[in-house]
């Protein structure tokens, strides 16, 4: 992960934290879950560029395909942070999250770097920090436990997403990763960053720009989300 990617992960995780009202789950209250898909980049900000692949287009296309796929009877609704090629600041994304209060969030990216041999998808979840603050303050402890349950849900969601992506890219996953961000203090919903593959790897790039593979990725992500919600305690 180069410095730019690190910054992106930091940004996205920061927006997970800052954009949310205290308790999310408006969808769950209506017995219908809501998933917010965040196609990263857009407009003036193209993201990774490699050959004909443009990250901003690919993430948007995937998000639209995911929404289409979920409409075929998934147990959740999909909302998108953007549904067109437009520049979106972090604060706009953050506001969208705060307004919608989704049950979980997937931020879609395309990977690059690590040399030409790096390939496969990556799933990042928020990092675990120490869970219980010292001092025996019960309010602090309760807050920490609440926080911890969101983190646990993020890991559970990450495991489902990984399992479903394995069906599209067998043995190509680079595994689940604890996001290297110190900014995870007040995370209130499960959230992941999904790097769908490497633009810098010829084989990945070929797959990612193939419409059938894009559909397969969208189906896999919807399948992972469906399983995750079936198992919500
Ligand atoms: Zn990106």
Question: Summary?
Answer:
With 233 residues, the protein is an alpha/beta fold.
Number of strands: 8
The portion of residues assigned to helices is 40-55%
- Give the SSE string: HHEEEHEHEEHEEHH
CATH architecture: 3-Layer(aba) Sandwich
Write out the distinct hetero groups bound to the structure.
zinc ion
What is the CATH superfamily? Answer: Zn-dependent exopeptidases
Overview features:
233 residues, alpha/beta, Aminopeptidase, 7 helices, 44% helix, binds zinc ion
Structure characterization notes:
The structure is a single chain. Residues 17-29, 129-135 and 181-187 have low confidence and may be disordered. Helix 5 crosses helix 7 (211-230). This protein has helices at 3-18, 26-29, 55-70, 90-100, 138-166, 202-208, 211-230, and strands spanning 33-39, 49-50, 53-54, 76-80, 104-111, 122-125, 176-178, 191-198. By secondary structure, it is of the alpha/beta class. The chain contains seven helices and eight strands, in the order H-H-E-E-E-H-E-H-E-E-H-E-E-H-H. The chain has one domain: Aminopeptidase (3-Layer(aba) Sandwich). The strands form two sheets. A six-stranded mixed beta sheet has the order 4-1-5-8-6-7, sandwiched between helices. Strands 2-3 form a two-stranded antiparallel sheet. Helix content is 44%, strand content 17%. A hairpin with a 2-residue loop joins strand 2 and strand 3. The structure holds zinc ion.
């Amino acid at each position: 992960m180069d410095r730019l990617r690190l910054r992106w992960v930091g940004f996205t995780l920061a927006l997970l934290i800052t954009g949310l009202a205290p308790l999310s789950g408006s969808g769950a209250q209506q017995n219908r879950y809501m998933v917010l898909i965040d196609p990263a980049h857009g407009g003036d900000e193209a993201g990774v560029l490699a050959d004909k692949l443009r990250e901003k287009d690919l993430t948007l296309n995937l998000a639209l395909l995911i929404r289409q796929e979920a409409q075929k009877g998934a147990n959740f609704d999909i909302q998108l942070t953007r549904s067109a090629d437009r520049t979106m600041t972090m604060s706009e994304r953050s506001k969208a999250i705060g307004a919608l209060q989704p049950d979980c969030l997937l931020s879609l990216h395309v990977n690059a770097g690590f040399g030409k041999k790096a390939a496969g998808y990556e799933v990042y979840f928020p990092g675990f920090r120490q869970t219980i603050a010292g001092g025996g303050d019960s309010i602090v402890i309760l807050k920490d436990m609440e926080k911890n349950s969101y983190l646990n849900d993020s890991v559970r969601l990450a495991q489902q997403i990984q399992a479903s992506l394995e069906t599209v890219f067998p043995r190509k996953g680079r595994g689940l990763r604890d996001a290297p961000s110190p900014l995870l203090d007040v995370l209130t919903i499960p959230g992941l960053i999904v790097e769908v593959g490497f633009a810098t790897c010829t084989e990945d790039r070929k797959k990612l720009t193939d419409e059938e593979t894009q559909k397969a990725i969208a189906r896999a992500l919807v399948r992972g989300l469906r399983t995750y919600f079936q198992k919500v305690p």
